[in-house]
Amino acid sequence: MALSSVEDILGKLNPVQREAVEYNGGPILILAGAGSGKTRVITHKIAYIIATRQAKPWEILALTFTNKAAGEMKERIRTLVGKGADLIWMGTFHSIFARILRKEGERIGLSRNFTIYDEEDQQGVIKGVMKELDLSAQELTPRTVRSRINRAKDALLGPGAYAEGAEDFIAQRVAQIYSEYEKRLQAANALDFADLLLKPVRMFRSHPDLLGVYQKQFSAILVDEYQDTNHAQSVLTDLLAARHRNICVVGDDDQSIYSWRGADVGNILGFEQNYPNCKIFRLEQNYRSTKTILGAAGAVVSHNRRRKPKTLWTSRGDGEVVTLMKMPDEREEVLGVVRKIETFMAEDKRQPRDFAVLYRTNAQSRGLEEGLRRAGIPYTIVGGIRFYERREIKDVLAYLRVVVNPQDDFSLLRIINVPPRGIGAVTLSRLKELARQQGLSLFGALKLAGEEVSILPEKRKRLKQLNSVLKKYGSSRKKVSPGELARGLLDDVGYWEYLEQDSTPKGEDRVENVKELLRGMEEFSTLHAEGNLEAFLAEVSLLTDIDSWDDRKNGVTMMTLHAAKGLEFPVVFITGLEEGLFPLASNLDDPAQLEEERRLFYVGATRAEERLLLSCAFRRRRFGGQYGIPSRFIDEVPTEYLETEGEDVTWGAAFSPEDITGTEKTYQRIEDEYSMGEEGDFRLKVGQTVHHSRFGRGRILGKSGFGEMTRLVVDFEKSGRKRLLLKYAHLQVLYEDEDS
DNA sequence: GGTGTCTTCTTTTTT
DNA sequence: AGAAGACACC
What are the E-state strand segments in A426-566? Predict the structure, then answer.
């Protein structure tokens, strides 16, 4: 391959892009609007740095948010500078710092074979802690605890610091759980995602000599999607850049959509203050979309108050208007999308791969999937239930984790009775007790279980068997390939027979999935010569669904708006544009969150190159049936860009009496359900007759709380008294129909 | 200790 | 609507 000259590298850039690539005078902030050639600038900048010998490839640190983005960038750099590209430190924040931790973590008491817990594992540990500490999960779910802990970690707060700032009761409890959670992770030699960032910060701060080594090495640091960095990430890059001060961050505050995960737009907005001598480049020419699409997207996002004003422009033509499809219900919405796809394929010679159908929540993919399948249009779904999150896959991975890291109690717990070997709660508690007494991990206790008198002889035998299998593979793991090892292990424990017991399609899927996993492991070994089991597990736990999305496959792509960031398609549908769904109900009250929803719309709309279609349904079945009001974002699209198909539908007092089950008297449903919010509350007075989809008709006896947390006591005619949370009850107010 | 049924709870987005 | 947990029965 002929390598590019410096002029080749610069030649394909517009003046601003070129300036940004050539600039070599310290910190750089590149504000890159959607479709402005951001990736091109980063890749060309890196190529330029290498070609002009500002730095060696291995002195460059380039951080992204998905493996896919990193892989694609590496590929593009390779075409510019050749194989040197492979030596660049390029990857996601999490994978790069996991790698550094594996190498250096012993300094902070971390052994190389640590396990990475995903959020499900994390939540499992938290659940266990909460059970043991007997902190009721009523107003404090493991889920909220998890997110609080993660948020704390993202902000670099350990359990101690968090406890100090814990003012209210809930936070104090979280602090307690957090502290115990940390102990367990440490004992299990495990790290969660947030630890992969927090631990390196700690390590670098406590070992300046080590920090010095990396500071010296990374003479050029580049960060993609800087608007999505959290505090820990910005601290990390600041630490590493402190010596050379050669840091280049790229991002777009309008595309900040991960604040719920701890991302802080303040990082990009405050970069100038943080690096006062920084040079700012603005990429405002969009190469992707038509004027219409850009105008529509820009008009919507301009409703946000907290943003840097900017004007994206394009030399492209107006193109087609944005189409809005107003549909009576979600079924019709799906049919509408399908019909459009068929029309465009027939008339405009579009391929299935030209289309993306975007939605706010994964749950919406079901209906769409069904519609496309019926129409015989090939498709791929990105996201949803991810491969590595399937139960059977996690089971197998748990076995492998224990083999690699015997201290991993949580994983051992997962598989100790899978397949069933007669180990129930009693035996388990004896085993745990044994571990506690001896100060051992669960695996340590398992070794002794064969001689433990408090455990039933029969169980002892089974535990002994399990122990010997795990031991066998633990000692052979360095000699055989990951795939081979897994195959043997699964044979030995009888996992296949266990899966095959279930002969339903679902069970067959499971077998297929595990086979697929084994294939993946074998492929991994051929790809990475040094690919041992540790490496495989490490990689697998940091994989996301978008990473495995194959854009060469010719199918319609379905995914959430979040997953679509960074991608582009000729035709884009944004579906489910209804108040409460997009923007999502829980983000409706908080202006900051609402602005984030709006940015999400902006991100979705700017994925489109030629055509953008919006759709909303006036009735959407979100269990029980809720009615849709078109999203405010639709109103924010200037009418000159918009062409509407379909009509407004008012569902209301149009239900026939038969719709209400088991009532001998005729009642009429009123326009809406009073599932949440204040507006409906006034009708929900004590004494009011209401209808519940399951319990039928009843009378309100009592009411407490307010807003979403309103609790009701209802006396149902058929099923008696029930306590209900208004938020979930979906009650309908019944009025006596005078005419009957 | 396993299995089946009933009840309760959950619905955001994901490295 | 569907999953996970609780509970009861085997």
Answer: 556-560
| A382: its two tokens | 């990105």
Count of CB atoms situated within 10 Å of the CB of A476: 14
Question: Tell me, in Å, how far CA of A601 is from C1' of B8?
Answer: 35
Does the pLDDT value for residue A723 go beyond 90? no
CB count in 10 Å sphere of residue A74: 18
- Tokens, residue A562: 């979040």
pTM of the model: 0.84
A231-241 vs A208-217: helix crossing angle, rounded to 10: 80
A39 assigned to active site:
yes
Does the pLDDT value for residue A343 go beyond 50? yes
CA of A366 to C1' of C2 (A): 13
As a whole number of Å, the end-to-end CA separation of chain A is 84
Catalytic residue among A122, A227, A255, A544: A255
Cis peptide bond N-terminal to A419, omega within 30? yes
Strand C contact with A727 (CB < 7 A): no
Mapped onto helix, strand or coil, the DSSP state of residue A357 is: strand
- DSSP bridge pairs for A342: none
- Hey, what are A292's tokens? 């219409």
Q: Is-contact A118 A541, C-beta < 8 A?
A: yes
d(CA A241, CA A30): 17
Q: Phi/psi zone of residue A707: left (φ > 0), alpha (ψ -120 to 50 degrees), beta? A: left
Cα–chain center distance at A388: 13
Contact yes or no for A575/A357 (Cβ under 8 A): yes
Cβ of A459 < 7 Å from strand B?
yes
Task: Decide: A95 and A103 in contact? Cβ < 8 Å.
Answer: no
**Which two structure tokens, joined as six digits, stand for A293?**
């699409």
In degrees and rounded to multiples of 5, residue A504 shows phi and psi of -70, 160
pLDDT of residue A738: 27
Chain A residues 223 to 282 whose Cβ lies within 7 Å of strand B are: 260-261
Question: What angle (nearest 5°) sits at the alpha carbon of residue A687, between those of residues A684 and A693?
Answer: 60
Q: At what angle do helices A533-541 and A505-527 cross, to 10 degrees?
A: 120
Summarised one tens digit per residue, pLDDT across range A405-449 is: 999 998 998 899 888 888 888 888 889 889 989 999 999 999 998
Angle (nearest 5°) at CA A239 between A233 and A245: 110
- Give A458-516 pLDDT, tens digit per residue: 888 889 999 999 999 999 988 889 999 999 999 999 898 888 887 777 778 888 889 98
The whole-number average pLDDT for the span A603-627 is 83
> How far is Cα of residue A583 from the mean position of the Cα atoms in its chain?
18
Residues across chain A: 740
Given a contact cutoff of 8 angstroms between Cβ atoms, the answer to whether A236 and A97 are in contact is: yes
Strand B lies under 7 A from the Cβ of residue A417:
yes
